[in-house]
Specification:
Two copies of one chain form a homodimer. With 414 residues, chain A is of the alpha/beta class. Chain A has three domains: 2-172, MoaB/Mog-like domain (Molybdenum Cofactor Biosythetic Enzyme, Chain A), CATH 3.40.980; 177-254, Alpha-Beta Plaits, CATH 3.30.70.2860; 259-413, Alpha-Beta Complex (Maf protein). The first copy, chain A, contains 15 helices and 17 strands. In chain A, the strands form four sheets. The first copy, chain A, has a six-stranded mixed sheet with strand order 2-1-3-8-7-6, sandwiched between helices. In chain A, strands 14-13-15-16-17 form a five-stranded mixed sheet, with helices on both faces. In chain A, strands 10-11-9-12 form a four-stranded antiparallel sheet. In chain A, strand 16 (368-375) and strand 17 form a beta hairpin. The first copy, chain A, is elongated, with a radius of gyration of 29 Å. The two termini of chain A are 47 Å apart.
């Protein structure tokens, strides 16, 4: 079954609202294995809507509409479809009763135009609207299926999930289901990742492997189709293994894992405590860790040591060391990590220092960052050369610190 | 000019991401009076993309594409358009240099497929990508204009606003210009704000006043149309005055101001220093301040005091006080503010303590938060009762601390 989604509403074309309905419907259809080939948005204009329907009929067996079922003159979806497929509109008793009940319940006056909402396509299956007044409907004609849904997402989503999807499953006798796992990467760009696993990407058909675009993360989505969820998972498993073999050092988790949730679960799982001394990130590292409930078992605290005085007087870093090596140095990062670890008496100390930008600092270009990691009396440091804007660099520095921490904790485990 | 927007990407058809680009582009086009008649989404499939282009050409003069300009094999937008309108792709030197510079700067290996991103349509106007690698481009052919934009919103939005819109204005000879000022609010809900200024909202036609939907902020956008920017600004000015009269206490800035940029400029402007002791926010407050370049003149540092021991042993809060009042109390917040102020010898000390959630703590429900503010030996505190999820509460707490700091600094100024 090939589907097309047509969202109707001039407010979408004016950029006043985002078409979240298309995303929702598409994701639900993907889960039952229905391919969506096009999404279309058209305004409250019957001629253009009919043109969109004609085009959709040439390339889809299932056309799902959202919007245009309301009481106003602008709401023309069902009228246009009725004319187009040649059926009448008839008043639906059940829908009319619930509209009347709605007005009685809220004590508001029911104006005549609200009766329009109870009109449905003759011969259609009516879908109840539990969160609004306009019912949905489904009808088959000319070897196509037309499914009409109300525009407001809080009405559309439960209606489509609870009535639309089962209707489509009955209609098509679809048995196949889709299961996917998102694999999350850090420390590698999208292009480089794809280059490294190109053989795997090219050879897979079920499951498929595809990058999932995202601002903050590099990911691969592994998607399998099968008769049962268990069968699908068995198809996915060997692909995950192969990804770990090929690019495992850059994988930090799957699905809902974030760098901070992964680090937090490794820390609390191992019963380890942590503290951090932060210069350029100024508390961002500890703040990211604190996003995780239950982290208080591991996160004792930290210091923001933004200027030299804070580093020396407050934290106790040797001022001679800073004079010799500068604050943007492996030595400074390691000293920060060790001093904070000793001070808060934690198993692990993290030190973050560097040049966020936009200006250079201590003769070092913006984006030069050192991360110190002191773990049970052994201290190491990592250098980053980032090229983003100031706050991208700060966030990436904190994320790299989480990433190195995760790698350290994983290697200690094994 | 009739426009159609074609978003390219299978991830949209799978419902993995929402098509926010279509909304953004549509809203920008509405501002310059260009009508959008259709939005279309098509997958990474050249045959279907070409079909979508053919259909769009029959109903639009301007076709704007988003997505499919990246380095991977799936990225096919410009290749398909080149074939369709019959031009070659050529390597753009400027784009190639900036891609190479990007890899050099970050010390990462540039794989061969990245060169593909520097290919542009022969004869097109190239639009610089300041936040990514793939350049945009604009070209006219067959009495149509084709505008190609990268898919990631943080790349597309500045490119379209700063280069795409002026390009279209030049192209169409649009004379009227649009100037808008976004007024930013904190500490008031959108519905309440709209209720308070409903008279103003209803009476305005030029400039118009409208809420600008945003996940994180309550804003009003004041938009004027005029022949010159100066004329437009003169229309806007009295409306801003009236907003200040009616709801000034909730206004913290305009346009690109954020709570942290406003607080930072007030601090550095007054030559005041600041430090913070943070429990539930765990460094988020100092980290937000550190987003501003030049803040090192004012921000000395801070402490994350996540557990009781950190509060008492590290920062020196009286453990008797914590036993008497608990850590979720005005007394604790004020003690944190005073202790950190004294320790870092700053003019201002901020203390943040409370229950982020999801669980209750010290017998207090999630969302109970105290903010202490110590300014030149005078200390006060503010109570919040928030109802969000854990990290929404943490962020709101840090933002409220910035808001109270701004109000304090503003009142000291006047």
């Amino acid at each position: 079954m090939r589907a097309e989604i047509i969202a109707v509403g001039s407010e979408l074309l004016l950029g006043q609202i985002t078409n979240t309905n298309a995303k929702f419907i598409s994701a639900e259809l993907a889960d039952i294995g229905v391919d969506v080939h096009y999404q279309t948005v058209v305004g409250d204009n019957p001629a253009r809507l009919e043109e969109a329907i004609r085009i959709a009929e040439e390339r889809a067996d299932l056309i799902i509409f959202s919007g245009g079922l309301g009481p106003t003159k602008d709401d023309l979806t069902k009228e246009t479809i009725a004319r187009h497929i040649g059926v009448e509109l008839e008043s639906n008793n059940q829908a009319l009763l619930s509209i009347q009940a709605y007005f009685k319940r809220t004590g508001r006056h029911m104006t005549e135009n609200n009766k329009k909402q109870a009109l449905v396509l003759e011969g259609s299956t009516v879908l109840e609207n539990r969160f609004g007044m306009a019912p949905g409907m489904a009808i088959s004609a000319n070897e196509r299926t037309y499914l009409l849904l109300p525009g407001p997402p809080h009405e559309l989503e439960p209606m489509f999930r609870d009535e639309g999807i089962p209707y489509l499953q009955r209609l098509s006798g679809i048995q196949e289901i889709i299961v996917s796992t998102v694999v999350k990467f850090f420390g590698i760009g999208e292009a480089e990742l794809e280059y490294k696993v190109q053989g795997l990407l090219a050879s897979q058909t079920n499951p498929t492997i595809a990058p999932l675009a995202s601002k903050d993360a590099v990911t691969l989505r592994v998607t399998a189709k099968a008769r049962t969820a268990e069968d699908a998972r068995q198809l996915i498993e060997p692909v995950l293994c192969e990804l770990h073999n090929q690019v495992g050092e850059f994988i930090y988790g799957t699905d809902d894992d974030t760098l901070s949730s992964k680090a937090a679960s490794l820390l609390t799982g191992a019963g380890l405590t942590i503290s951090a001394a932060e210069s350029l990130t100024a508390g961002l590292f500890t703040s990211l860790l604190a996003e995780e409930p239950g982290i208080s078992a591991s996160l004792k605290g930290g210091m923001t040591v933004y200027d030299i005085e804070a580093k020396t007087k407050q934290l106790g870093v040797d001022s001679q060391l800073l004079e010799t090596y500068g604050t943007v140095s492996a030595e400074c990062a390691e000293a920060l990590a060790e001093k904070i670890r000793d001070r808060f008496q934690t198993d692990i100390g993290i030190g973050l220092t560097g040049v966020a930008g936009p200006d250079t600092h201590d003769g070092q270009p913006a984006g030069t960052i050192w991360i110190g990691l002191s773990y049970k009396k052994k201290t190491e440091s990592y250098k980053l050369r980032l090229s983003g804007a100031r706050n991208t660099n700060r966030l990436r520095a904190a994320n790299f610190a989480l990433y190195y921490l995760i790698r350290k904790l994983e290697s200690e485990k094994s």
